[in-house]
Queue: 4 jobs
Job 1
Amino acid sequence: MADLYPSIAQCAVVATAFKVLLFPAYKSTDFEVHRNWLAITNSLPVQDWYFEKTSEWTLDYPPFFAAFEWILSQFAKVADPEMLKVYNLEYDSWQTVYFQRATVIATELVLVYALHLFVQSSPAAFKRPSHAAALSILLSPGLLIIDHIHFQYNGFLYGLLILSLVLARKKSTTLASGLLFAALLCLKHIYLYLAPAYFVYLLRGYCLGPKSIFHIKFGNAFKLGTGIIAVFGAAFGPFVYWGQIPQLLSRLFPFSRGLCHAYWAPNIWAMYSFTDRVLIYVAPKLGLAVNQDAVNSVTRGLVGDTSFAVLPEITARTTFALTLFFQIIPLVKLFLDPTWDTFIGAVTLCGYASFLFGWHVHEKAILLVIIPFSLIALKDRRYLGAFRPLAVAGHVSLFPLLFTAAEFPLKTIYTIFWLVLFLLAFDRLAPASNRPRIFLLDRFSLLYIAVSIPLIAYCSLLHQMLWGNKFEFLPLMFTSSYAAVGVLGSWVGFLVVYFTS
Amino acid sequence: MAGPLPSPHKPRRKPKKSSNDSDVSSAAPPATSRSSSAKPAYPLAAFLWPARSSVSQWEILPLILMAVGLFRWAAGLWGYSGYQNSPMHGDYEAQRHWMEVTTQLPVSQWYFHDLEWWGLDYPPLTAYHSWLLGKIGGIIDPSWFALHTSRGLEDPTLKVFMRATVIISEYLIYIPAAVIFVRRLSKHHGVNTWNAAIALTAILMQPGTILVDHVHFQYNTVMLGLVLASMSSVLAGRFMWSCVFFVLALGFKQMALYYAPAMFAYLLGVCVFPRINVSRFLGIAVVTLITFALLFLPIFLGAMYDTHRGIDARPELFGHAAPLPIFTQHSYKIDYTAWYYPIIQQTAQIVHRVFPFARGLFEDKVANFWCTLNVIVKLRNYPSELLQRASLLLTLAAITPGCFVIFVKPRKELLPLALATTAWGFFLFSFQVHEKSVLLPLMPMTALLAGNHGLSKNTRAWVGFANLLGVWTMFPLLQRVDLRIPYYVLSLLWAYLLGLPPTSFGVYSQDGNPSWSGFATATLHSIFYAAMGIWHVAEAFLTTPQGKPDLWVVINVGVGTVGFGICYLWCLWNLVLGSGLLDSSQSEKRKAKSQ
């Protein structure tokens, strides 16, 4: 296929030009977080990395990410040594901004390479759809908003994830895929949510024979086992040696945080909180008890600690049990049918389960669902039907991350541009399914997409005009409830597609 | 920018086969191989590649408009002219101040108010435009345009508002005009819609306009858009509308005068050739006069109403009358109490403000003839009257050939070239030229991309050369306010999209039939691109020798002037070729070769 235009490289060039123009854009506290980590890793011995707390933004990513920051800090010296001082809080000279923004763009090359490999490795008949999917990830508004405006290194990390997923496609590189994923876990532990799918896939597809599960491939199992131990050893070994593991874990897993994040991520718990809010007014009529303390916390949804007035409290244990339960269901199918497509489906569903039911979920975690799903969204029209509401809901739910006036047109126009372009292109590229389509799902997604337009208009413009600065939680609540419906709907839809194909 | 699109859907319209250059954007496949092996010749064609056959332009157009809008807005995140630069600030403050003046003061005082602080010196349409924007902005935050206290305001929300006004003005005027112009011109030449979409994107991504309007800050696209609308009315054969738009362009920014001789020559030409058409002439004349009258009417009515209310245009004189700024020696003949006095007073003041004859030949370092000549001969030593006369004569000499050609051969497809030729003539030789005025010749020249063979290597090479040289001469202006990065990003991006140096030398490869003109173009352009590249390195890393702090700027000006002179000659030559005035058998051969 010669006519895969525009090529990934061409898109990367133009996207880079756009991202460089975004250098002076709004940047969140994550910018200072990463500057602080550059300073910590550069100026302190490794033993102190996880103890340093001059800044409130302490190091809370696993050791490989700290090492990554250390490598970046070697270049940062050239740009502006002042940013490498731990006490230089909130330091943002233009050299610092340019440097940190540039590192995000440069490390994103991993993503470009991974996507290139993804298109290369897909079968000839799927080259064009895969190419379109690859471009949709490369130009994703999620990555643009989170990485290049808000500030994080997701392009790099998701690049590694895709690289690992692509390597899992061929038998010869499955081992590399597993080890790369282990390394990814040592970069950012959020990917633990996807680990069950990897575990099952590697176990069934790599360590056990294709015919029978009692035919154990000891050689493969040994290679994988020692490889993973080596990767984790390299990451955590020194900290075990210094006896710092409890401190490290307390940094990585801060359980003191609440059920919902500052802004409600569009998941089950957002809907649960929303229901609880409504019940406060309804409960007295139904004769239910209302917890007055909870009612009085007016700032609900804006502080970490969520407590419920009518509905029962949710514990961390409950959320984990639910997450694991909904992860295991698709894994059963993966165990029985360890093909690459099923594997990607299972990874996606693990992402869904963790996002929908997890504890203290951040809205940025939606990428954990969207990005793996994009790889198979064009398999046929039924997949696309489930993908569409997710694409809309997931990206709309990221809007509250940027609240400054100057970035408003960027986030909305870019997202609309991306949705129009790729939903149109996908619509033409996805082959028809050989199974009957799910009528309701199609209509649901169309209606759903249509609702997003008045919603965005209300939340971004009308609310301000009607109410001024009152009821600031309303747009946030509408956005997350709306997005939660979309994510949940697409999850149910995808579950159906996954189990019937 | 676009995903691949084979299509299960029926194409809305059949791709046109009749076009005579449907393949210029794709490398022509060798006759032996199948056409499916064609590939895009430059990245912009690749981005629109999936839209080649079956995509409706109602799908592609919104995407193009969104994409170019995103680049504009992102570029606007950078600083503007005069940002954190007290005491006078810059163009941004001028525009903001005009909104303050027009919304806070009676109409009669607009052109008189404190002229030392960015006094209004653009024609009335700009004043009305400022008034409208100031009214809207005043609703959002009255402190932005409060009289006196808002001077030099650097509120970040105000910046967002100001940036938005530039974009909205552009999307209401320049962009619809460009879309319609490209559609009409490409239809006129039988260029297919896919190539037209490429040309449109290239025109809208022009680095110069984005850098000057959306980064450095001004509303040039309003004036340029009105001129484009005027050109596109000509294409549609609606001469009266074309006059209306052109007068509005003049009424927005007097710089549109650069185009006026060619426009006048063309409109006169269509009234005389092939046969004299008196009714058309009268129609054009009457419509022009009426438009001018309507343009000034609000100012006159406002001034008369103010007199009626007892508000003086110049309250600082405490009721005393001052002589007029122009025709001062005849002022005494006028009755200061007559009902028509406000009209005369306003007209005189507007003319005086809009055409600053009193200023010197050139103000800043600008890449035109006078500024370059000044390096060799110190022009300061000559009387300014002599210089003004010389400037007038040279300008007339530069614009006459182009105007003559378009007058005797008033073909509508030649209009962009004629406008470009006269605008180059003005830019090079007239006085009081500003660096940013290079946008004027660049606009019609870039519009050539939508015409016949517009995307061929030769045209792309020349249009690209003019544009990249144009932004390069604006670099000193931009770097003064720390806008190097948007300059590099936007100009390199445009060069990349169109396959131009320094990103690619593909436009100069002559596959098949090498010609002397092609070779000369390649050599000439290469010398200039090399000079620009070396200059950038030198400017960035070398300090100027002692006593010559302006050395880099002077070199920039010199190289720019020569390059622009070449662009002028190229436009003129193509205008003459296109007019068919040289059509003997010999020159026809030459014409075929050069295209």
Job 2
Amino acid sequence: MNDHSPQDTQPRREERVFGVACSFRSVAEIFHAAERIRDAGWKKWDVYTPFPIHGMDAAMGLPRSSIPRVTLLAGITGFVTGCLLTWYTNSFDYPLIVGAKPYWSVIYPFPVLYECTILFAAFGTFFGQFIFNRLPRHHHPLFDVPQFIRVSDDAFMVVLEVTDPHFGNPDKAYDFLASLGGQDITLVRD
Amino acid sequence: MAHASEESTANREILAKVRPAELPRPSLVLNGRSFHWITEKVCGIVEEPTPLWWKVMFTMALCLAAFTFGGLAYLVSTGTGVWGLRSPIGWGWAIVNFVFWVGIGHAGTLISAILCLLRQKWRTSINRAAEAMTIFAVCCAGLFPLFHVGRVWFGWWLFPIPNQNGIWPQFRSPLEWDVFAVSTYFTVSTLFWYMGMVPDLATIRDRARTWWRKAFYSFLAMGWRNGNRQWCNFEMAYLLLAGLSTPLVLSVHTIVSFDFAVSNVPGWHTTIFPPYFVAGAIFSGFAMVLTLMLPLRAIYRLHDTINQYHIDNMTKIILATGSMVGYAYATEFFIAAYSGNPFEKFAFINRAFGQYAWAYWIMVTCNVISPQFFWFKAVRENHALVWIICLFVNVGMWFERFVITVTSLANDYLPSSWGYYSPTIVDIFTFFGTFGFFSVLFLLFIRFLPLLPMAEIKSVIPQADPHAH
């Protein structure tokens, strides 16, 4: 089943290991493999796929992303910033009567408050996504795995990381991946 | 009673036997293409040697764009008098062009945001190009109000930045709302566009062979790794940005319409403006999407990914929004008649039969009559005809903004100060040059960035379903 050679699988001395990777041929196979890894209680592992697979978050047992909290917080900040900006400029620092409107109210600058809310919330979401995903990060052990290049095209890959308590030694992880039907099982060096 | 219950029992028996008809969903990608085919197709566009047609078009677009920048340089060095603006018409082609280009942008945001929330999967093959179109259209739009301020080197006074005069922008003015609306629109559209592109940039990065290519795409792809833990955050962020962009689609042109509606000029001071402007914006935007995508589809042979189903949907949206625009024209007339306001009545009769009647009837022909051809399947399937009708819609929507802006100003309350507006050659050069500027940006996009969102298209083909067998 697993066609790895011993040189490929054994870490050399003084070498740090990131984890063990293997490939799957189809979406259905990797989906079911993910469910079994989740059920085995693994925490430090990931599935690498060219596109987001519908239902994979549940198959992996991932919690809901917390980006919405960042968005909400950023949106509220935007609204308050808009209020402060319009109040400070048009009512506090340089009060001016225009069109018989009050110096400041929530009504007349509403388009500005609205746009500030959306602008800040969008920035929060955008940067939140990159920060939560720990990006940008241009060096990563996976980039040295030859098969990894195909993941952004049409390959499906599972990586079990060495930091997981279930990992033990690489051989145990190989056997586990082999039992799931994984192919091209390789060691990922750190 | 007994008879009825017997009948209902019989009906139930029949119903139990009847299986609901399987309504096959139209395929989004034809000919059962694989994941790898999609990668090859889209990356192939970026990776192939620069085609001759691109070089020719790019040179032509640069030359055309030079007219805009030449016109603007002449304007800045001489003064706004070189435009055809004179009392009583203070808003001429510049504002017409601004509204025209901002409107074009709306289809991109509609496709990327509203259709995403509505789970319209057909959006996937056109959303990237449509979003790019949005951003470049807003770039063109932004030039006009910026230079319309006259002394462009004071353009930063539009933003709340402390200046030596110690004064601030005045937030009761719809023009100031517009500064915030358009700049937010541009920024959020760009963030959304870029974030959606990151996984596709990673695909191009992974395929890159030369050093500079690798460096360029690695920088843009931010080290994206396609891990599901990343996808989980990415999809949530994408959905949220779609949710945030949805009110933007509706608000930007609403606020643009406030520039007119908040004033007291007859023909401008109407409550119908916001919805009518938004419908018109989506109408013109979809026409522009088709104007761009039909030739690209032919050049790059994208017939499997942009198929008749996509074209049908877009033409139907054009038909629907075009009919809404036609309905809005009729409503304006009705309200003017019903209001009992003689100035309002005059403004509309003058639009249709006054000195600008020629522009009004071009507008009606292009916007109300031409999309009606899309009722017919034969027309929707004739792509040359679709393209020509879309050109008519583009022209018609420009004339709509011309009619609204100019007719109301030319003949308002005091007949003694009426006037007639004609553009100068500088106006004409500056406007037509923006098509070159737009094309330069769009051609660069085609050449260097993924034209279709690969990851999204892959996720809607049948092989992507984990429960398919």
Job 3
Amino acid sequence: MSDSRNFVLGVFDDEDVLLKAVRTVRGAGVKIDEVYSPFPVHGLDEELGYKRSRLPIAAFMFGALGTSLALTMQYWMLGVDWPMIIGGKDFTPLPDFVPVTFELTVLLAAFGMVGTFLVSSDLKPWKNPKMLDLRITDDKHVMAIDLGKNKSIDAKTINSVLRNSGAIEVNDKEVED
Amino acid sequence: MQVTSSVRKPLITGGKTVHDVTEDICRQVEGKPSKSWLLAFGAAATAFVIGFVAVAYTLWEGIGMWGLNKTVGWAWDITNFVWWVGIGHAGTLISAVLLLFRQKWRMAINRAAEAMTIFAVICAAMFPVLHMGRPWLGAYWALPLPNTFGSLWVNFNSPLLWDVFAISTYFSVSLVFWYLGLVPDFATIRDRATGIRKTIYGALSLGWDGAARTWGRYESVSLILAGLATPLVLSVHTIVSFDFATSVIPGWHTTIFPPYFVAGAIFSGFAMVLTLMLVTRKVFKLEDYITIEHIELMNIVIIVTGSIVGIAYITEFFISWYSGVPAEQYAFFNRMQGPYWWAYWSMMTCNVISPQLFWSKKIRTNIAATFIISIVVNIGMWFERFVIIVTSLHRDYLPSSWAMFYPTLTDMGIYLFTFGLFFTAFLLFAKFFPVINMAEVKSIVKSSSEKKAA
């Protein structure tokens, strides 16, 4: 096993050219490792063939957990553990429990989803990402093609496919694993 | 490809490229603080320190140092609390509701508005905490903790408890929303920096690398957070208004309160955003990003919400007469004609009349006029809360216990303290964090930027 990966990087400066280029490059049978952008490009994940994110499902599950926790907490505290007559109302009036239930639903849904996002995208303060090109966070989109995963196609062909599809630069980059 | 109607005015002027956006916004973060920033920071820090004396005095001597009396048990404390929470409404409204409505003009102002929200909610929280008298003994009683801490569970029937949940949820969700938006921009600063700055901004950026997979998830997280935050924004001031509406005090006991408070909150929040943004754009030279178009659109929101507030005042007044309840009728008569008539009429002038000036295009596209009206609106909104709270309390059912409320120096000092806290925090944010969401603005450069003159 070699511990370095060789990349061919196609640099783009226009999001619409990039979108077309992704289709051309994939059409030519080249596997794209990842595309890096300074801002979200709509439709890029579909072009790359990524599945729709399941984060909304996570948000729903956490939200449902929040709802049930909040209701259980309130019913148990005021209905089971220490029932109290407050203002002549029932021990457990459902309408009065709505605000806290709503807030806890939102709280757990938001925190649960963001937590899931951070874990699934491996985002953490002590991570030091290997930026393939420092202009990615400025104004350039970079299409990274891993030569190790495209053994059947030679580097020259990849290079010309990138150039023909509108890359303003094509660079080679070796990344230590 | 994003298509924008040619009728729309450009949101970014000056023919900016994507790289220009990075340069223009990072310049403030990377450069030395300007003289005007240092001056403003000095003033804010001074207010903070002077005000802190009043806070310390309250904690040492107790809330007897405030102007409250047996009849008026709630006055400046809760007025300031509601005022600050109201101001804190614009940030999440701009970023969440306008995101759901696909209003692209939000992109230039959402970052600063969200920061403002967070700081305003911190200022608001100071008041209930200080009102506890000895918060170190009792702050946790507001949480549902087991009875070994006291004797009973918290009362889930009480709007005051709902408020604890509403405001802490609003604060923490807004904080997460704001921080998530900052992550890609911290990565931009990280990749331009060296040394210790690279380490700090690197940690703040959570190792962001701009991969399409991450962006895809990021977009769906933002959309759902916006969906969650939208009802949250509306719920916060609704629940704050329940503090009053569920009581049996004439002048408070009305069902109109929730929508009326929410409209008022958006009204004052947008006014505060305008006050801050007009200064920020000038000091940081962001005229190409926060354009007259943005100011005009915010002023339109102010006319709409200001008119809703005006209609609410009139409706409330009509209903008090129509109800036929003498105590209710007197509460409103007393507001207009009683000893606090000046507060009532200041509120009416500042909140109902002044925003109507924005019907004139000349006024709503004039920076000086906007700046003045934005401050007037917030003065009016402060008086609104003062009127609702103090005039409803000071003449209650028993004429022998009628009293007046006069603020003490301690009351004023604590209010000054929150101003110091708010502006100190905002200025630190404006200096060390990117004040405009670079990643979002970059995504509309191609579709909404003014084309460079050939």
Job 4
Amino acid sequence: MWKWLHPYANPEVSYHFVGKLLPWISKITFVLLFIGIVWALVFAPADYQQGDSFRIFYIHVPTAILSMSIYMAMATAAFCSLVWQFRLADASAAAMAPVGAVITAIALFTGAAWGKPMWGTWWIWDARLTSELVLLFLYLGVIALHNAFEDKNLAGKAAGILSLVGVVNIPIIKYSVEWWNTLHQGATVSKMSAPSMSMNMFWPFVICFLGIAMLVAFVICIRFRTEILSRNGMRPWVRALITEEGVK
Amino acid sequence: MNPRRKKRLTIVISILVGLSIVAGMVLYALSQNIDLFFKPSEIYQGKDDTGIKPINGQRLRIGGLVVPGSVKRDPSSLDVTFELVDMRMPIVFNDTDPVIKVHYDGILPDLFREGQGIVANGMLVNGNFIEASEVLAKHDENYIPKELADDMGEKHVKPSYTKEQIENQQY
């Protein structure tokens, strides 16, 4: 496996490899998101007590799940960078942090917009909502640290330590609704047993989830390539690329 | 793995393990404060894990299921009283359940109905009566299409208000 992975530790190889993936990811993203959103907003049945407001579920739940998954991916990259000192792992962590922050903000915003008509309040300091807000601040801290130092390796180290420390928050978010009593309800789909919704409500969710996940992957790939370029600006291959493309 | 990497790996992992232990203990110590609300039975017997009982005049949140048949609304104002019992799955109501009475003067959330879980914020009076200043609906994790719910006999009717009730609103 190491032999197979080894060439991708080279920024140039990774840059071109991700470049080849991009058009595919963008096509899959478009198709999945289009089918998923139309299915969820038009064809999925309305809930018997929440009516059409229930459809916020199809944005809120995928973004909430992804906000945690992106964090875990970022922390894994930070871990690899701290232990094995892969330069590219730092670049990928720096590429993921702002995307994760935006996804977390979307999850919080859609949650508030859903809470107002259903619960009767925009915000309540229960364990689930508070820990998700802490996650947003962790992302913002990681972004700030990545930009706080002139030396990118030093910045990556500092941001990496913060991301690893923040991992403690992930199980707290996930299990907050089971460990404590909260206003937020328990898990509907992300659990071991069958989802607590009928199948014609569940499948549009699966498509929406995959679509938003692909969108996240797409944006991260673009940011990853930019990170590679900006960190290797003095290398001959980047210079050659710039003269080739005619961009100054 | 070379020794330097091994050293870094042990440092990083020991920091992580240490942190999770510290976080776990902090959360354990705080667990009663992280709970958002009291259950009706906890008002009588004290918190499940600490046994701390709320006192009269204390501001608290209570969470429970609205007992069917207990909702009494005043025809000319927003005044409403209802009874709460502990939330449980599946939903069953026994006559022996500890019951807390709640009085509220305000507009109820759309999801409020008998048998629904709610969280009320208010003051404990008289040991088993709560004067609520805010009532929030806590729905469960189940979503059911309308047609299916009709077949199962599940129905939801939003609380509705007459013009007179709205006009008599105090604030």
